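SEQUENCE-TO-STRUCTURE ENTRY
===========================

Subject: a protein chain together with a token-level encoding of how that chain folds.

Sequence line: the amino acid chain in single-letter code, read from start to end.

Question of interest: how does this chain fold, as expressed in backbone structure tokens?
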Amino acid sequence: MEADSPSRNRRPPLWATLIATALGAGLLPLAPGTWGTAAAVPLAWAVDRLGARTGFGEWIFVGVLAIVTAIGSFAADVYCKATGKHDNQQIVIDEVAGYLLTLIAVPRTWPNLVLAFVLFRVFDIWKPPPVRWMDRTIKGGFGVVADDLGAGVYGAIVLFLVDHFHLLARIGIP
């Protein structure tokens, strides 16, 4: 959306604000993407614990990722239209989805949760190809989320390799 869009400065609906900003994490003044990712850490841990208790571990994790992506894309679209800004920095539900995707192929241990945070932030900021292309090309609410999912794929690959080859254990991290 253009900066001079007629819908600029409209207040988004409360439900869209709560979802798009990850319950307000995106409204924090400095580094909203980092705060949005930080908000996803306890969510990932809780979803993993719920999955372990129910016996549907990976299914629940994948389901939550799908729900966050779908509802987050819709809320981001509503938020963007209301504010008149495409990919408004206050929208951080995309960081939540990308972070969850980073953890998709590994056990959600505390070392993996922390390393996933770092890896996801690096790839989200760096935006290696085709993530940068996705960021610039895909429009609408899904466009807001898509590049973070791309960064999450990169993070997931690196995290899987670190976990698979026990690289953290080799440097003394259990």
Observations:
- Residues 67 and 97 are 9 Å apart (CA to CA).
- The mean pLDDT is 94.
- Residues 14-170 form one domain.
- The two ends are 47 Å apart (CA to CA).
